[in-house]
Design a protein that fits this description.
The chain has helices at 2-23, 25-31, 35-41, 47-58, 73-82, 93-102, 158-168; strands at 106-109, 117-120, 132-136, 141-145, 152-157, 173-178. By secondary structure, it is α+β, with helices and mostly antiparallel strands.
C-alpha cells in the first residue's frame, strides 16, 4: 500500500513541476540556481540592522564572565557591538563615553531611538548611584546588564532609567547612535 501511495505522490509531483514549467518557466529556472547566485538576490543588512539583531539576541544572555556581574554593563555593551564591528573591551562608563565620542562611527544625539546607546557615566552626578549603560530598545525599554544575574535584560524603561540616574543620581545622560555610512 505504501508503495502505491509513493508512486501516486511521485506522479503528482511530476505533474505539478510540468504545470509550473508550462506557466512559469522563468520562476522554475530560478529555483534551480546555485546558492551563490541566490545570495546575490538577498540584500545585505545595514550595520544598524545587524546591531538591532545583535541587541535582540543578547537579551537573556551573559556575554562576558570576565567582569563581576554588578559592574559588567560596559563590557556587555562592548560584546554586543563586537558582534557587528571591531570594538575594544572596556569596563568603565567614563572610558566608554570617551571611546564613543572619539569613534567616527558614532555621534552624540538627543534621540531616544531603538538601537542607540545610553550612558550615565560614573562621576557625573552626586555619587549616590554608579554609572550604567545599555541600548534603547522597543516599547521604551532599555536592554542592559542586570547586576544580579549578569545577563542582558529589559529591567529598565526609559522613565525608570531617568528616575534612577538623572533624578536620583543627578547624572548626565548621554546618548550615541551609529552614523549612517553610505
Amino acid at each position: 500500500m505504501w508503495l502505491v501511495c509513493l508512486k501516486k505522490l511521485k506522479k503528482l509531483a511530476e505533474w505539478v513541476v510540468k504545470w509550473f514549467r508550462k506557466f512559469f518557466p522563468k520562476e522554475i529556472k530560478m529555483l534551480y540556481q546555485p546558492i551563490e547566485t541566490l545570495k546575490e538576490l538577498i540584500p545585505e543588512l545595514s550595520l544598524k540592522e545587524k546591531l538591532l539583531n545583535a541587541i535582540e539576541y543578547s537579551i537573556g544572555q551573559d556575554l562576558d564572565q570576565s567582569v563581576p556581574n554588578d559592574v559588567a554593563c560596559v563590557i556587555q555593551v562592548c560584546k554586543v557591538l563586537q558582534k557587528v564591528m571591531e570594538f575594544p573591551d572596556l569596563t568603565y562608563t567614563p572610558v566608554l563615553v570617551r571611546t564613543l565620542k572619539a569613534d567616527k562611527r558614532f555621534e552624540g544625539t538627543l534621540d531616544l531611538d531603538v538601537g542607540n546607546i545610553i550612558v550615565n557615566a560614573t562621576g557625573t552626578g552626586n555619587n549616590t548611584v554608579i554609572g550604567h549603560t545599555g541600548f534603547i530598545w522597543k516599547n521604551n525599554v532599555i536592554v542592559s546588564n542586570n547586576s544580579l544575574t549578569g545577563k542582558m535584560d529589559t529591567f529598565y524603561t526609559i522613565e525608570s532609567w531617568r528616575q534612577r540616574y538623572r533624578i536620583k543620581g543627578e547624572m548626565m545622560t548621554q546618548v550615541f547612535r551609529l552614523k549612517i555610512i553610505s
